[in-house]
Amino acid sequence: MQEKATELAPNDHRAWGRLGEAQRHTTGQQDQARESFSRAAKLALELLEVNDRDWQTKGMLSIYLAYTGQLTDAEKFIAEALAESERRSEVLFYAALVQLVLNNEALSLDLLEEAVNQDHEYRHLIANDPDFGKLADNARFKALISPHSTGR
Asked: What is d(CA 24, CA 102) in angstroms, rounded to the nearest whole number?
């Protein structure tokens, strides 16, 4: 379905990012995922040439860059997105993913707690995101995704 989305919207970075995400979680498709994320990053950068204050695109771009190993650029764009969005939950979620790629679990958890404190619905997104599965045994993470939790 994600491949079809890229056929229908070949210039939409989000379609390419979703395809990359699906491929990343499919055995044997890591090379294809990297290509899809690279394409998504290229398209997102083109969009930012039109509107360089688009914090949502910067947030998604940071994930594409992190998944293609461009960690310095990923950190740059997520920092800009956090500042420009005034630390909205959506961008905090993206930042937490970037921090996981950087193997900074403590900061990732800080960001997730901040997101949940702003919007409790993020608890469900976090609990169901396969990337955060690596935190499943962490006591802070368990408390965060608990239905009775209020964040930190």
From this structure: 17
